[in-house]
Every structure is written in C-alpha cells, then in structure tokens.
Write a structure and sequence with these properties.
Layout lengths: L7 E6 L5 H13 L5 E6 L12 H6 L2 E4 L18 H5 L4 E6 L3 H4 L14 E7 L9 H15 L5 E4 L9 H18 L3 E7 H4 L9 E5 L10
Parallel strand pairs: 1-4, 1-5, 2-3, 2-4, 5-6, 6-7, 7-8
Helix pairs in contact: 5-6
C-alpha cells in the first residue's frame, strides 16, 4: 500500500511519537520496491535519535540520506542541506521527509512549500496516545493544527504509532487506535497506517482501520530500554 502514497511523503508528529523510527522503516520498505529512494532528515530540533545517525546503514539498505549540510563537529547545528532540492523537483525519486517533532520543527517546511502543491504530496501525522500533549482527541487535534499552520501544509493521513518503546503490547496499540479513529472522524483525515513492533503487529486484529505496518527499532540499540 505504501506504493499508493504520493511520491513525496512528509512525516510529522510530536517529539517522542516515534516519528523518526516510522520514517526510517517506511523508507526501507520503499527501498525494497523502488530504485531511487531518499530519506531527508529535516529534524533541526531534536539532537537525539535522528535519522541521520543511520546514514551508512540506510545506504546498505538502498536508501540515500540527506541531513545537515555541516559535517563533523558541527553536525548538531540546525543547517539543512541544499541537496534536498534535487529529489523534491526530480520526479524519478521517491522521497520521505522526517520533520522536527513540534510546530517549530515543522516551520522549516515553509522553505519548500512552493514545491508542495495539493495532490503531489502526503503528510502523515504520527500519533502516540501515550504522549501527554496528544493523549486526548482535543489535544491531538490542536497539535495537528499547529503543525499544519507552521508548515503551511495539510495532513493527509494519520499513523497510529502508540507505543511504550520495547514494553509495548497490542493493548497499547489498540488504545491508540481508539484515539486515532476519533481524530480521523473529527477531522475527516484517514488512518493510513497502524505501526507497531514486528512481534506486536502479529497480535493485532486484521480488521483495523489502516494498514498494519510492522517496524524494527533502527534508532535504539539492543541495550536500550
């Protein structure tokens, strides 16, 4: 089903929602089907668990990563590479854009808004019902709207990525699904994916709204909780 999404996929969500893990997993799955896949790390807010940390691993998996324009000791500075313009404008590329995890982070998208016209992109809102700022439909709706206003773009799909890291159970995902369905109903935005760790995804009912999307943890080492 990911092949049915628009060529440009923008991934947004609250800090701690699992947005970057979803972005990496999405790009890797896409790389199994497509020849020219680019993952752009536009997260200039979070200094930890960033897509750009896995550049070499992603390259081996068929995904090119574009991150900071400053390499080495200055890599934590909020600098975005001009290299992003290539895959945005070249329609032979499939593009996944991992955006900073709050409205301030989403504001950087405004730099490229002229290239994102209605119908040529998807913007997925990654929802974790265990985050305090998005644990009710009212809070989630407010946060989503703030991201839309900051980015000057519209969310086209919801991703239920409710988790408690490695302690996640299928019950946590189903809890998040209830919230995602309420948010979807209120805003008339479809649930596109139900994201969960591979062993958890196996326990989810097949009739959930949205495609079940098994993921791996690329950004957390084995020893991390």
């Amino acid at each position: 089903m990911i092949l049915e999404d628009k060529r440009i996929r923008i991934i947004v969500g609250h800090y701690g929602s699992g947005k970057s893990e979803f972005s990496i997993n999405y790009a890797v799955k896409l790389g199994q089907k497509k020849d020219k896949v680019v993952l752009v790390d536009l997260d200039i807010v979070n200094l930890y668990f960033r897509s750009r940390e896995k550049e070499e691993e992603l390259k081996k998996l068929g995904v090119k990563l574009i991150g900071s324009s400053i390499k080495g000791l200055g890599a934590d500075l909020p600098a975005v590479s001009a290299e992003i313009y290539g895959p945005i404008q070249d329609e032979s590329f499939d593009l996944v854009i991992d955006v900073g995890g709050d409205p301030v982070g989403a504001r950087v998208l405004g730099m490229y808004s002229q290239y994102f016209t209605k119908g040529n992109y998807d913007m997925f809102f990654v929802l974790n019902a265990n985050r305090p700022e998005t644990q009710t439909v009212e809070k989630a709706m407010e946060y989503l709207k703030k991201i839309e206003n900051a980015s000057r773009l519209k969310v086209t799909g919801i991703v239920n990525n409710t988790h408690l890291l490695k302690s996640t159970t299928y019950k946590d995902v189903l809890k998040g699904q209830t919230l995602a369905e309420e948010l979807s109903h209120q805003l008339n935005i479809p649930i596109k994916y139900v994201s969960a760790l591979e062993h958890v995804a196996k326990d989810l009912p097949a009739n959930l709204t949205g495609q079940i999307f098994p993921i791996k943890l690329y950004l957390r080492e084995e020893w991390m909780v």
